[in-house]
Amino acid sequence: MSRPTDRLPYTPASQQRAADGGPPEHRRVWPAVATVVALGLALAFVWSNPKDGERQREQHAAERKAAAADRKSYMTSELTFRKAKAHLSANWEWEEGKIVIGLDPTLAAPSNYVQISGQGQSNSQEALPHIPWPDAAEITLPIEDPPQAITVRVALGDEDWMKGDTAPSRMLRLSPEGTLTDVTTGKELPSRFS
Fold first, then answer.
1. What is the reported pTM?
2. Beta partners for residue 193, in sequence order
3. Where do runs of H (alpha helix) occur along 4-139?
4. Handedness of CA 144, 91, 178, 81 (dihedral sign)
5. d(CA 43, CA 52)
6. Residue 148: HSE in the Cβ half-sphere, 13 Å Cα cutoff
7. 92 contacts 102 by C-beta, under 8 angstroms
8. CB contact set of 108 (below 8 Å; sequence gap of 6+)
9. What tens digit of pLDDT does each residue of 111-139 get?
10. How far is it, in rounded angstroms, from Cα 137 to Cα 123?
11. Number of neighbouring beta carbons within 10 Å of residue 183
């Protein structure tokens, strides 16, 4: 037994048409309008306040500059390798974000070869026939933020060193707090820091 019904069969919304034959009214228009208005307001706020980001960058730069002024920036130490001696110097240039490390042989204990290397950079100098000692070797490395200790390898060949010989070397750790440490032995080496 079937029962008569007044109900029409279900028609999906995508197939429904309005009474005048046009597409059905969209009931979800207001969320899209609200989203567009919210994005417009956010864009207007950001556009009207570009100086906030610039002000924050200037404040951060001023804080870094003040912190750099409080830091010590120059360290020296005398290193001895067998019969040769050299002065190791490290100059932290805080505002430029770099450290310049140099190894300069002394004339009191002659050497024929100096080398310094660290973080993929290397520089070496040899004595020439008409100049009895080598020039200073120097490398420039970036300062990390926050400043970290820097490890370098220094080598110094005394007056008996000949081209092709392996010069004695040390691994050293230079700290921005003013310590110089021999990595192999773990001993802190004497240094002056200012």
1. 0.62
2. 75
3. 29-48, 51-70
4. positive
5. 14
6. 8
7. no
8. 85
9. 888 899 999 999 988 887 777 778 888 99
10. 6
11. 14
